[in-house]
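Write out this protein's structure.
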Amino acid sequence: ELNRRYFLKVFLIFFCFNYIKTMRPEKIGIIGSGLIGRAWAMLFASAGYRVVLYDILPEQVSTALEEIKKELHALEAKSALRGTYSVAQQLSFISGTVELSELVSNAIYLQECIPERIEWKRKLYTDLAAIVGAETIIGSSTSTYMPSLFSEQMTSHRENVLVAHPLNPPYYIPLVEIVPSPWTKPEFVTRTRDLMLEIGQKPVTLTREIEGFITNRIQYAILNEVWRLVADGVVSVADVDRVMTEGLGLRYALLGPLETAHLNADGVADYFQRFGGEVYAVSQTYGPTPKMVAGETLSKIAAECEEMVSREQLTKRREQRDRFLHELSALKKKFH
């Protein structure tokens, strides 16, 4: 009996020591328990942060925590779990609340992930202004709004606000766009960038806010030309997608467009000296920006996309995409 108690005591001390050793004291708050909010919670937990997930209804929070549990176990089964902590440890780092003041208290960083409704964001940030600490950074996951649009009305701490926009799915695509407002403190931009690097993301920092940030401006330029080509009957939906999946996408999965140009000539200066005129001439033929609304072109694109992947198969296709993104990420680490 004495030996049993002794070994039990040793086990408890060992367990508690390792738990305390791995549990970081810094607190991260996640506002919004949807898909993006849950992904952020898992990312921060993978780095050992104490994460609190907030939503307005208890059932939303409990559902989100259950979904996170399922997802982490699924990631473990696929050998795709991030970080050095076990599933049990990461789950122990994440809790939930329906009290905004409880979420904000002693948090070093808040990641806002509410729906893309500007009036909702402005109301939330107005509420946060009254309770957030002077050193607490507030990053928005928005892909739509410049940070000044939902922070300009704040009576205090608007200098704490910036955009930290992830790409979907954030767990597999590491890019984060950090976008300051005109009044964001530079030190908060730097701290956010360091935090993203620490949790394994790959941040890019804009020097100022601009509509669409960087990713969407590039993505929209592609979508505009794709729409025009399909609308003009130049190419099918399947073939225009194939240009990316079997051509440009293979390059851009490893290299950016400027490094690609750099390698395709005797340096990037040589590339633009040789091909810059052609780039300009072709660009003059692009035509006006299309309005992507219901009509003949959208019906054609939708019908042909349905032929490639029916809506009933979207979930399965997303799962396949995520699995290959994980494998691609591992391969890219060998390239860089």
